[in-house]
Design a protein that fits this description.
The chain is an alpha+beta fold. The protein folds into two domains: 180 residues, D-amino Acid Aminotransferase, Chain A, domain 1; 151 residues, D-amino Acid Aminotransferase, Chain A, domain 2, CATH 3.20.10.10. 26% of the residues lie in helices and 29% in strands. Strands 1, 2, 3, 4, 5, 6, 7, 8 and 18 form a nine-stranded mixed beta sheet that branches. Strands 9, 10, 11, 12, 13, 14, 15, 16 and 17 form a nine-stranded mixed beta sheet that branches. The radius of gyration is 21 Å and the shape is globular. 43% of the residues are buried. It binds pyridoxal-5'-phosphate (PLP). Pyridoxal-5'-phosphate (PLP) binds next to α6.
Amino acid sequence: MSTTSSPVTSTFEIRRSDAPVPVATRAEAMAAPKFGTVFTDHMARVSWSQADGWHDRRVEKYGPLLLDPATAVLHYAQEIFEGLKAYRHADGSVWTFRPSANAARFARSAHRLALPELSEADFLGAITALVATDVDWVPSGDETSLYLRPFMYGSERFLGVRPSLEAEFLVIASPVGPYFTHGVQPVSIWVAQDYHRVGAGGTGAAKCGGNYAASLLPQQEAYGHGCEQVCFLDAATNAVLEELGGMNVFIVHADGSVSTPELTGSILEGVTRSSVIRLLTDAGHEMSERRITLAELRAGLTDGSVTEVFACGTAAVITPIGRLAGEGFDMTVADGAAGDVTMRVRAELTDIQYGRATDRRGWLHRLV
Ligand SMILES: *Cc1c(COP(=O)(O)O)cnc(C)c1O
């Protein structure tokens, strides 16, 4: 289906687990997995040292890591990660979506966190070898997938403050059910005005665990206000929309145009975000990446010129936003239900990912 030529992938040594999960137990675990709680039998792994570079590419038994208490990552959070999915198509084949974009982002994140860059060949090789080994863990139900979590951390045993001279790259995999079990439900958003995710020159454009650690307290504040997710404003002016804790945000206007916050260096460049921009553009929507203030959004919700708001990211794909609240305001987005543009682009994207629509843009990459 894919029209682009396959990128080069490294070869991994497969060291099979001596104790895989029994078939019946696996079937039970995969029946209705809660996100990120069930893991497959194996993990892919590559080690790095300054002296030897990347070495020992292998797939091995999934299991705990043995870390010295002085391991660098535990003290200074030198860690990055990625998130992508493997989708099973109706004919049984297994595909992933734009993995080269994740590989490129992983290399950019590594650079920002002073970790060694991993080649695209190693990134794709790890995913390919792991999914091939654990292919029985790729679910086949509607909107199910195998979530892939590549990550890297500074593994040197050393408390001094400087980049680690050793690192580990791993990929673990987790079968996931549909994000929405009772049809797509709009979520409510709390706009944080006392906390920021990152500042100018910070790590906002890198996918690193530290950004998430900083988002947890404002996320708790959102729960406290009866909201499910938090939206951050820029640190410099506290007025410009950035993104949610782990999703990018889009605004649909009454005239059919769509806007999303521009990439400033403090926003994570989502693969879903760039795919949505392309799909909406191809569908004839006027699409702009620009500075959007909270005041503009609130005024648009009040006068009806903003008709839909949605968030997007790999885990939840596209999530309609039905309510927007913050200090001194609490507003419904249109009638609070999922909008047409939101649901259409969601269907278009998932149809490509699950092989129900032709992949005209060469976004799919076959794994098995
Ligand atoms: C991963 C992530 C996203 C979404 O990126 P996708 O590539 O679409 O999954 C958005 N914001 C943040 C902060 C993220 O970490």
